[in-house]
Amino acid sequence: MHKLLVEGGSRLRGQVRVSGAKNSAVALLPAAILAESTVKIEGLPDISDVGILSDLLREIGGEVHKDGRNISIDPSNMIAMPLPNGKVKKLRASYYFMGAMLGRFNRAVIGLPGGCHLGPRPIDQHIKGFEALGAEVTNEQGAIYLRAKELRGARIYLDVVSVGATINIMLAAVRAKGKTVIENAAKEPEIIDVATLLTSMGAKIKGAGTDVIRIEGVKSLSGCLHTIIPDRIEAGTYTIMAAAQGEEMIIDNVIPQHLESLLAKLREMGVTIEENDEQLYVKPGDKLKAVDIKTLVYPGFPTDLQQPFTSLLTKAEGTGIVTDTIYQARFKHVDELRRMNASIKVEGGSAIVSGPSKLQAAKVKASDLRAGAALVIAGLMAEGVTEITGVDHIERGYENITNKLIELGAKVWYEEMSDEEVEQFQDS
Ligand SMILES: CC(=O)N[C@H]1[C@@H](OP(=O)(O)OP(=O)(O)OC[C@H]2O[C@@H](n3ccc(=O)[nH]c3=O)[C@H](O)[C@@H]2O)O[C@H](CO)[C@@H](O)[C@@H]1O
Ligand SMILES: C=C(OP(=O)(O)O)C(=O)O
To answer: Which of 50, 70, 71, 242 could connect to 249 by a Cys-Cys bridge, CB 3.0–4.6 Å?
Structure first.
């Protein structure tokens, strides 16, 4: 087991290239189950979630060949193999095997998903959708059993706007008989990306990216070639880093429109940001001004950037209030930032950050993926060498973060943890 060390103080400069979007990749891979010939996806991020999903596709009989960032998946010999345990528990997106396998085989057995612990993460809306399409769904000893004689299109109103439920219902509905309408659908760019792949496979989908998605079921889907969109959360993380500790930075391979809510907030703080088609140029002002943020569904401020943004606020002058309306308990990073001398309290579902604080290095733990990103940003700003454990969370979503940071002039490296440190980590 290793830990990540971050020596604070270096100013970052230069260019960083953003990888393919994790939250697209993790849906595009299971979507390939629905095809009858080879699906090729280009530009995948090299992260552990992608590795695990590729293994799961192999477990059910897929022929998966990975060549750097490109993958080819031949689903023709796949079978409805139950996946009640094991790797499915390691990530959130294994739930997409439910929709995709149901869509292809009319049945599936999938263990309840893992992923970041952000408070309760129910999947009732996914199940509501599968049932509306005609599946019988039971939870037996922590695994979801889905069975249908035949899937039939339906009108489904989501009680909660959910990225996962929207995509999962799309996956199950594209080969169902007749028309499906998903109302109150999520509008995240990753949903459009998945709909684009499915459409290239022959699916009939209208309205992805709006809150009403209409799907006309087709009998079969074929292989295709798809290029993934850039990761707006990775891009946002480096943009926040640039605001926190950059001299001048270019964030490359970005769709700036995907980050409007973040860019607006950074500009309000006094950060200079210029945009072109694929890049952001970021230069922090002499002083940063505190702002409030409230996370919302897309195109609102993304919950996945809330934790990194909280680290940035410790450097700003004044008080900033961070409210997460998607995951009210997504504040595990706050205790760790306080160990680093940040002045933050959590009150009534908001974190109140008073700045500026001179951060000090400390031994801290990444409790989840974006908490890890928040601690890396804090470590870059802090005096001394910050030691971050829980690195596997960070590796779920950030490709090659150390190399990318070193290229920007940061001093970061991995070290093997001692037996005593591993024990302490496991007990904490
Ligand atoms: C793999 C993936 O894409 N993960 C993203 C996805 O997670 P995920 O798809 O799990 O998140 P959702 O959009 O489903 O969750 C949004 C909100 O709806 C609630 N909810 C969701 C489903 C459900 O059946 N019932 C229910 O109550 C959740 O508890 C949460 O409060 O969107 C989140 C919100 O943008 C991001 O933080 C995650 O990075
Ligand atoms: C919460 C996240 O991921 P997941 O849904 O995969 O746990 C995230 O990407 O910030």
So the answer is: 242
Number of domains forming the structure of the chain: 2
Side chain identity, residue 181: V
Q: Which atom of ligand 1 is nearest to the CA of 164?
A: 9
Beta carbons of 136 and 178 less than 8 angstroms apart? no
Ligand nearest to the CA of 123: 1
Which domain covers residue 349, as residue numbers? Answer: 2-12+288-427
Q: Are residues 6 and 59 in the same domain?
A: no
Known catalytic residue: 224?
Answer: no
104 ligand 1 Cβ < 6 A: no
| Residue 183 backbone phi and psi in degrees, to 5 | -105, 150
Catalytic-labelled residue, pool 28, 73, 102, 116: 116
What CA–CA distance (Å, rounded) separates 241 from 401? 12
The reply to whether 6 and 31 lie within a common domain is no
How many CB atoms sit inside 10 A of residue 385's CB?
Answer: 16
420 C-alpha vs ligand 2 centroid, how far in Å?
29
Average pLDDT, 10 consecutive residues per value, the chain (428 residues): 97 98 98 98 96 97 96 98 92 96 98 86 96 97 95 98 98 98 98 98 98 98 98 98 97 98 98 97 94 98 98 98 96 97 95 97 97 98 98 95 98 95 88
117 lines ligand 1 (CB under 6 A): no
Q: Are 200 and 298 found together in one domain? A: no
Residue 67 and residue 8 in one domain: no
Same domain, 417 and 318: yes
